[in-house]
Amino acid sequence: MIVEMRTGASREEIDDVVLKAKSLDLDVQLNLGTDKTVVALLGSNTGQIPTDVFAVLPGVENVTRIMKPYKLASREFRHRNTVVDCGGVKIGGEKVVVIAGPCAVENEKQLMLAAEGVKKAGATILRGGAFKPRTSPFSFQGLQKKGLELLAMAREQFGMPVVTEVVNPQDVRLVSNFADMLQIGSRNMQNFALLTDAGKSGRPVVLKRGFSCTITEWLTAADYLLAEGNNQVILCERGIRTFEDSIRFSLDISAIPVLKRNSHLPVIVDPSHAAGHYALVPAIAKAAIAAGADGLLIEVHPNPKEALVDGLQSLSISDFIRLMEELRTVAASVGRRL
Ligand code: PEP
Ligand code: MN
Question: Residues 38, 120: one domain?
Answer without folding.
Answer: no
